[in-house]
Design goal:
It is built from 16 helices and 15 strands. With 459 residues, it is an alpha/beta fold. The protein folds into two domains: 290 residues, Zn peptidases (Aminopeptidase, 3-Layer(aba) Sandwich); 153 residues, Glucose Oxidase, domain 1 (3-Layer(bba) Sandwich), CATH 3.50.30. Strand 11, helix 11 and strand 12 form a beta-alpha-beta unit. Helix 3 runs antiparallel to helix 16 and helix 4 packs antiparallel against helix 11. The N terminus is likely disordered.
Length: 459
């Protein structure tokens, strides 16, 4: 059996059904999970619908509001109870004109996109000498004041990984790099996109500035353009490399966003619910298919499948969080509003739509029986057990704030950062067979959790 499971993890999604149906299950939830693997269309319907009829859903904008209205209509049409839009205020940033040109010694244009929460160069742009930092650590080591009047260029070497760990290595260049550069006097920052593909599709994403440091213009170059800029430094042989940068984003001030919620009602309202989460907003460059319409489709399909198998013991609450991309506004607002309402267990889908390959919980030691039952139930879908402690997705702050049970259903992230935060985040990048595998695994896990009478965390 172990040999078959290892093969399933490595094989394509087309090999999954034979393994999944090797065991025959009589309980309704397992049967629904098996059927989802072969024929679920609910998740695809959600992703296709919202990306086609709404498209990009920038946090705090009218487009995000249209996305919430669309999602509520979709949930209501499929019989979810207590569907609501829970509004919250946020500070909203939108992009404007974007242009980068090397002016010397090798004049040519480059593909760039602004990073969220950064400042404008003004319509006339700025021109300055570029200082090259091969890594984030090199920038941190630069002397204070050494970048006065300069543009910082931060590179890195992000590699594709199944577990997405390359993001943790490369991410600081975006997350805090512009703030570090500004604190050392830089007038602007450009970074190599936090991504693993070699297309001229720059990756956006949010950044931050330390207290007391005024935001400066910052953008991400596509990987081929970052490669080219590195070669320019090598060939310049000490001559200054200069760049003209035009980025004109705007801060709109306070606008409204919201969290969309809906429920499959359980038979015992005294039991804390199972929280299944995703985020409904997206960056504006693509249509937000993998990040994170797919996640919303997956968790909603799983909830509906469990309901079709029979009314569960616990309520299943779907949380489609708003404004995740620009600062986890929705996750924080939901936790603040509901912190006194216990959650039995929280889990989120927000890493694309490729196959789930690993199961993690934070109760492997405190509730080993439940952890083992869950792991065994999804092994037939090619999902491996793990000793890693689950920490949860970005939008289940409430589970972390309550110190509650958390599950991570880890998706294959090998190609995720080819698409993440780019114009290529579109419906055609989703593999329907892998999407169905996600729904099958989620149906099985959520079904077991929703019908578990005891304390999930086991403490």
């Amino acid at each position: 059996m172990h040999k078959h499971l290892l093969a399933a993890v490595a094989a394509t999604s087309l090999a999954i059904p034979a393994l999944a149906h090797a065991d025959h299950h009589e309980d309704p939830v397992s049967g629904m999970a098996d059927r989802a693997l072969d024929g679920d269309t609910i998740a695809w319907d959600f992703v296709e619908g919202i990306t086609t009829e709404v498209g990009p859903r920038q946090p705090g904008t009218p487009a995000e509001a249209r996305g919430r209205a669309w999602a509520m209509d979709w949930l209501n049409a499929r019989g979810f109870a207590n569907v609501a839009d829970e509004p919250f205020p946020m500070q909203t940033w939108v992009r404007g004109e974007e242009e980068a040109r090397v002016t010397a010694p090798f004049a040519q244009g480059m593909h760039i996109t602004a990073l969220g929460n950064t400042a404008s160069t003004g319509p006339e742009g700025i021109e300055a000498e570029v200082v090259y930092f091969p890594s984030y650590a090199d920038l941190v080591a630069a002397p204070e004041g050494s970048l006065a009047g300069k543009i910082a260029f931060i590179s890195h070497d992000m590699r594709p990984t199944q577990d997405g760990s390359g993001y943790g290595f490369a991410g600081p260049a975006r997350w805090t790099g512009p703030g570090v550069a500004a604190s050392k006097g830089a007038v602007a920052t450009v970074i190599r996109s936090i991504g693993t593909e070699n297309h001229r599709t720059p990756h956006t994403g949010g950044t931050s500035f330390p207290d007391g440091v005024e935001p400066t213009p910052a953008g991400a170059l596509s990987n081929p353009d970052a490669d080219n800029l590195e070669r320019m430094f090598a060939r310049a042989q000490g001559r200054p490399v200069t760049m003209h940068l035009t980025l004109t984003p705007q801060f709109l001030g306070e606008t409204m966003s919201g969290n969309v919620v809906g429920e499959i009602t359980g038979t015992d309202p005294s039991l804390p619910p199972v929280l299944v989460a995703c985020h409904l907003d997206s960056w504006d460059l693509g249509t937000g298919a993998i990040d994170d319409a797919a996640g919303c489709g997956i968790v909603s399909a799983a909830a509906l499948n469990v309901a079709e198998a029979g009314q569960p013991l616990r309520t299943i609450r779907v949380l489609m969080a708003g404004a995740e991309e620009t600062g986890l506004w929705g996750s924080e607002a939901y936790s603040a509003a509901h912190i006194d309402e216990p959650i039995a267990v929280g889990l989120e889908s927000d890493f694309g739509a490729d196959r789930i390959w690993r199961f993690e919980s934070n109760f492997r030691e405190s509730n080993p029986d439940l952890h083992a039952r869950l792991a065994q139930a999804i092994a037939r879908f090619g999902v491996a057990n793990s000793t890693n402690v689950a920490t949860g997705g970005a939008d289940i702050n409430i589970s972390r704030d309550q110190g509650g049970a958390i599950i991570d259903l880890q998706q294959d992230g090998t190609r995720y950062f080819e698409l993440h935060h780019t114009p290529d985040d579109t419906l055609d990048k989703i593999d329907p067979a892998q999407l169905r595998q996600n729904v099958a695994v989620w149906t099985q896990v959520v079904g077991l959790l929703a019908n578990e009478p005891g304390d999930i965390l086991g403490e």
